[in-house]
Structure formats: structure tokens, C-alpha cells
User: What shape does this take?
Amino acid sequence: MKLLVNVIRAALLTGAVLASTLLVSCGGGDRVEEFAPTRLLVFGDETSVIEDVNNDANGRKYTVNALKTDNVTLDCAANPIWIQYLSGTFGLTLAECNPTAVPDPKSRIYAHAGDTVADVTAQIDAHLPAPDTFSGTDLVTLLAGAHDILAQYALYDGSNEDVLTAAVQAAGQVLAGQVNRIAEAGGKVLVSTVPDLGLSPFAIAEDTANAGRAALLSRLTQAFNVELRAKIINNGRKIGLLVADELVQQLAKFPTFYGLVNVTTPVCDPAKAASVEACTTQTLVTDGNAATYLWADGTHLSLGGHNSLGQSAATRAVNNPF
Assistant: This one.
């Protein structure tokens, strides 16, 4: 019995040491106090956009938009996109979605629909002249690159994959430079890789018409993400990494584990909504549920995708040793 007790104690001690080692290796051992950002600054493309088109602090999003009980008026607080999980986690309010009329919200969205990595550089340029620039209490998000990847994919002629790969690698390096730029200016950055576009409904349709296209889109996505990850400052203190590509791969591989029922087709019905930003809970496919579909349209995440991405982002931001 004494021997058994000693064995158990040794096992517990080994586990404790291993856990401590893992914590330190992720930067957690250096954490002194909880990171409490005072504002959220958002850069990137439409995955991070809330457009306040009616100037009523109740903007539309590039996913399945929720409606109020009148089934007409947008309800931006419902069906949150991933950055709203972050703002909610830290009790911050985005000006573009402020239904409770919080006075003078400091958090801002610079992200814009259709923007490429080069456009993100311009977004940051637009912020830097501000008197407050970046500070250690700013949580800054960046998610861009999908449009760079899709633009290169559109140039594929069957023999120029190396050229396209080099172009997306260069774009990944540029975005990494912008991430480092913000970090060096004082902001705490949460940067996301691009979700695996080879698993999107667009890629699946392309592959049906031309076998191998989905795999090509996955390779281009990976090439971009590898360069992004390789070139960012990797000390954990200034930058947190959100691996959206690996997350989408897991969602696609084990959908039921994440509460998803459809990871291959869009939930928005194009016959009812001409574009994803016009998609609402009233324009879905028959029996479609935004929360159980991964994709809203060919390349944009539905509520199911944003839920998982947002939860992962919040966990990363809370646990990263900023």
C-alpha cells in the first residue's frame, strides 16, 4: 500500500511539473496580472466588419444578420461575429453596434469589406496619426488575406502555382510586418490566420468543375499563413496568435462535436439575398439554421463559424501573457 501511495504521489508530482512547464512554454508563467483592455481596435476585411449604414449604431454584418421582432430591423447584438465575442468578454462597446447607446465608445472598426493586405496597411496608416495611436491597454485584431489568396487563385492557368504561391507568401510577410508594427508601437495584437479556403463552399464548387481546385486553395491558404506565422514577433508578450485555418479544419472534420450539421454548403439562399451582407434570418435555405452551418455563403462564415472563432479568440486573448 505504501508503495502504491508513493507511486501515485510521484505521478501527481510529474503531472504538476509537466503542467507548469507547458504554462511557462506558452508564456503563462510570466503572467502577473489579468490583461484588461480599455478599447478594441479592429483591422482587416469583412470578416471583422459591422457596417453602420443607417447611422443608428445597429450595423449589418457579412454573415447571417439577425432581425428584431418586426422581422425587418437589424439586431446587431444578436448573431455576433467573432470580434463581438472579444468586445463582450472585456465589457467593451463597438460604435457600429451600440444598441444601448453607451456614450462615446472608444472601440473602433477600421476593417473594410473587400480589403486586401495592402489595404490593411492603409487602415493602420489612417490610425497612426491619431493622438492616442496604440497603447498597452489596446487589444488590436487583424484578420485579412482571403482576398489576396482568392485574387491569386483567379489567375491560375494550370501551370503557374509556384508564381501564385510566391505572391501569397509575400502578402503573408507584409501582413506580419504590419502586426509587428502595431506591437512595436505598443498595442497588444491578436492576429488570426486565414480560414482554410479549400474547405469553403466556393472551393467545393470549383473542385466539382475542375478536380484539384479545392486542394490548390488549401495550399495557397497554407502558404500565406505559414509566412504570416513565421514573420511575426514570437515572444507571446506582444502578440497572440489565433489559428483560424486549423480551427476550420477541425470544424469540417468533426462537425457534430461543435454542434454543426452542415459544413459544405451555404446557409444563405442566393435567391432570397443577392449578397451575404443582405442575408438575414429570413433569407436562409429551407430548414437552414445559421448556428449549425459553418458557412453563410461561398467564402464567409455563418454564425456557427463565428461562434467557434469568437470563443477561440476570447480564450486566446484572456490567456495570452500580454
